[in-house]
Amino acid sequence: MTESPELLILGLGNVLLGDDGLGAAAVARLERGYNIPPGVRVADGGTLGLALLGLFAESEHVILVDAIRVDAPPGTSVRVDGDEVAPAVRERLSPHQVGVADLLDAARLIDSFPASVTLLGLVPERMDLSIERSDPVNEGLDGLVEAIVREARGLGYELSPKSGAGARDSRAGGVMHDYRVQQER
Fold it and tell me: How many other CB atoms are there within 10 angstroms of residue 114's CB atom?
């Protein structure tokens, strides 16, 4: 039995729906290019929704990685934090959003919501039946991985680049936009 992660980095989305698979692609790149320290778990949650409740609820901090629909050009980096995450997953994620919203609600109901939850992602261009991602999303993936590394660093976890793995310096490139999702009243 392994210890519960203090930080969970969870890729979400359906790899069969084009850009919706960017969460899985980002966490795969993260694992290939960075040394993951003790206390951090990187996982591809796919479209599992409530099946992720145990892992989600036992984590102190969670970084969700997914396609996020906002009024911005495809490939734009997006960061949603804190109380804005729940409304964002209900309104801004892809076809699996109901499962993610249920996951957040269930964690609150059992009084096991992580101390912090951040949603990082890219604006998708297309989410149709395809195993290929659009050019804007592919071009934004390295910046998204760097944003994940910066977010983990801000929580006190140092993900260091693997030597010779072709990982870019996490301080380089990619500006993450902090979009505040307004709830309709």
Answer: 19
